[in-house]
Amino acid sequence: MLVRRDAGLVPRSSSLDIDRLFRDVFEDFPTWAPAAWSGTSKYPAVNAWEDDHAYHVEAELAGFQEKDIEITVLGNELRISGRREEQAEENAKVYHRERYVGEFSRVLRFPVDLDDSKVEAKLDHGVLRVRLPKAAAALPRKIEVQG
Amino acid sequence: MTSCVTCAPERTENLENTEATYRPAADVIELEGAYRIEVELPGVKKENVDLDLKEDALTVRATVEPRPMEGTVRLRGYGIGNFERTFRLGKKVNREGIRAELAHGLLTLHLPKTVAAQPRKIEIV
Known about the structure:
The structure holds two protein chains of two kinds.
Chain A: H1 2-5, H2 20-26, E1 46-50, E2 54-60, E3 69-74, E4 77-84, E5 93-96, E6 102-109, E7 120-124, E8 127-133
Antiparallel strand pairs in A: 1-2, 2-8, 3-4, 4-6, 7-8
Chain B: E1 21-22, E2 26-30, E3 34-40, E4 49-54, E5 57-62, E6 72-76, E7 82-88, E8 99-103, E9 106-112
Parallel strand pairs in B: 1-7
Antiparallel strand pairs in B: 2-3, 3-9, 4-5, 5-7, 8-9
């Protein structure tokens, strides 16, 4: 979850009236070692829901464009993967990092197979929404009672 | 200061509360002549961001349009609500030169350093 990434850096329920961290930053705070993000499978955080015909997945990917993200569907699994490169600038010092950097690949598994030919994905202002129709075989079927 | 910024919950808290205001994730980078703050505002459009500089406090506020989940919710990794975060600026920041841009749900703040805070190359003659 996103929350874990800065848990050690930012006071979570501090009584400070303002984000003290950044006051420090702008007043000669010593260089901070960037956090090492590994085990990326929890990123991005997702919300998921279902209706009769489809599953829906939403992920927040601020700063990402379509070309940076790959959506793969296989059987009953959805994979969201991509990569955020660090901007390579001369003499840049990262004082504080909460944003995810590097590669990620998150897999979600659903109870039934998905119809991979009808999956729709849309990225809008950094919010990814994927609609994953359930495979026809997985949909409820009405059986007529013969008289 | 009256606002309690650090008390704003993180994205994974208060998930059911649709009235919640969240503290957006941010990076702070120092460059040679400026600082850059990158604030994640997913789902936010330009017209819904408000930047306010009051003395040393630079506050980012963003309104997020609701994104309903129609059906049965199966997984809730984050809450959806408005964003708010305040950054306290030190003496090195040139207030007049602050610029902001929003693209793909990422707000980038450029904060140039004052002339006195900039590295100066002295030429040897």
